[in-house]
Amino acid sequence: xxxxxxxxxxxxxxxxxxxxxxxxxxxxxxxxxxxxxxxxxxxxxxxxxxxxxxxxxxxxxxxxxxxxxxxxxxxxxxxxxxxxxxxxxxxxxxxxxxxxxxxxxxxxxxxxxxxxxxxxxxxxxxxxxxxxxxxxxxxxxxxxxxxxxxxxxxxxxxxxxxxxxxxxxxxxxxxxxxxxxxxxxxxxxxxxxxxxxxxxxxxxxxxxxxxxxxxxxxxxxxxxxxxxxxxxxxxxxxxxxxxxxxxxxxxxxxxxxxxxxxxxxxxxxxxxxxxxxxxxxxxxxxxxxxxxxxxxxxxxxxxxxxxxxxxxxxxxxxxxxxxxxxxxxxxxxxxxxxxxxxxxxxxxxxxxxxxxxxxxxxxxxxxxxxxxxxxxxxxxxxxxxxxxxxxxxxxxxxxxxxxxxxxxxxxxxxxxxxxxxxxxxxxxxxxxx
Length: 433
Known about the structure:
- The protein has helices at about 1-40, 100-105, 110-120, 155-165, 185, 215-230, 255-260, 260-280, 300, 305-310, 330, 350-365, 395-405; strands spanning about 45-50, 55-60, 95-100, 125-130, 170-175, 195, 235-240, 250, 285-290, 315-320, 335, 340, 370-375, 375-380, 415.
- By secondary structure, it is α/β, with parallel strands linked by helices.
- The strands form four sheets. A nine-stranded parallel β-sheet has the order 13-10-9-7-5-4-3-15-14. The protein has a two-stranded antiparallel ribbon with strand order 1-2. A two-stranded antiparallel sheet has the order 6-8.
- The N and C termini lie far apart (about 90 Å).
- Mean pLDDT is about 85; it is low at about 1-20 and about 30-80.
């Protein structure tokens, strides 16, 4: 007992001497961090949450941005006034593609599976996220002005691109445009604003870049050129539109919003990106809502007018997933397509796709333009529609949509699945006998 007491007293004495020293060291550390912050600032950093499959962006200082080397002035052109851009392209590829989310493109075993599908079947194209729905550039880049928003979601992107080229795979970079909760928050002057002058948020709390702000165009153009630099054959713009959900009446687009319509601005933006890519010989495609292929009702609100966009892009990809058209449970009627009422569109993939593509043909005949049509098709089960309004999508349903595209007179298509898991039995074998 006595020996234990003396030991405790000795330890207590050491603690009394050690604690002041530790406190002094901690104070010095805090002072060092404090001085570093004000002299240099903190770098932007991203933490990858592997379990949730998302990027948690922590930005302690606003990433710097330098305008790209090109500076074509966005012109006030619309419709037939959009100047024709003559570009020297490599030979065109008749695309039969799959969308690959960045998280799966970054996994070596998954990418090997996609390459195997390309080798074994008619699939010859992969669409890969370069700027995703979270606003992140999906690979590390040192390019000035872009490094602050890049994340290591796809490690070794240059090696992947080289491997895809060795296998003869055509590569398309998907770039999410105006939905960008990273750049619009770190550069609030480029964001869509609410009536109080603050960055506006959609129904999911995301902030958006303002399509009326041409400085936002320059940033998207810089990302597009970066994708071209690392070897992508084509750039594909997604979310190339104004917001469609949230309190839209709370948005203030300022004086610019009164000068030009949303459809004019979106068409001008696409033409601007196409012109910026022309000097490097890279094609430009744009994703559009499937409904705009058969109706102009939503054009004024989201800014997608197919007649105008046919003059602005090299390719247009209407997203014509049968599940995304209204059914009777949702609106009491269903969806009228080509004068045919579909009460449960998800149950009739061939008929829905075929009749929408006939509507696209009408646009081409009436409006002209250089854009080639390449629809996105559905390879996912929309169980959220409820019993009686959805079906399991297997290889059979996927193939029905592909055949509908062909029957309507078109030859290109891309298959979409958010998780990038596909019914590869739907695809014809490569080089069939």
